[in-house]
Design goal:
The chain is mainly alpha-helical and about 220 residues long. The protein contains 10 helices and no strands.
Amino acid sequence: MNRPNIRAGRPAKDMVQALGDHVVEIADALFIEKGYGATSMATVASRARVGKQTLYRRYPNKAALFREVIRRRIDAMLVPPQEDPPGCDPLNYLKRMAAAALDTVLEPEFITLHRIVIAEALPFPELACAAADNWGSSFVGRCVAAIEHAQKLGRCRAGNPEAMAQCLLWSLVGQPFHKALTGEVTLTNAEERREHLEFGWRIFLEGVSLPIPPKAA
């Protein structure tokens, strides 16, 4: 990968952003290629063609750099490309979020990053902390907000929205992700994923739907 070509006269803020994106992209590739323990800050600086001081000014240690890699992957990959406009059906948005998450956690690179966390968390405890800081937090928050919105609209029964979101995500995303982490081949094509999503979504809706009032005698 080549360092981005920064044009003369380009605003300083854009230059800083482009360089930051480049460094994180290089670090991401190295962590996946070599693992956490075998990837040094010096290697990242050399591959990215930046000075060590420049790298350390941005990221004081390797754990901080890995934390940024995880954060960017989650932010970029666990959110649908476009959010629904205001006034849309929040449950439709929630389902799209779940579908996007399922596709993401089954991507080989995403699985590799989390295998790195599991394999090297004991010798490098800061690695587990770096991953825990970001894994799913913003994504779960979006799901909780969608459920809260549905509750306000009368589309969803009262209850703990975070617990509802966790139940949905474990059944639709958590279990396939756990299987993939352990090497089990699961949901390998779009049709299998669609069937898995639709089945789990129907069960979720049955659980959160408002009870139907009894008919008057």
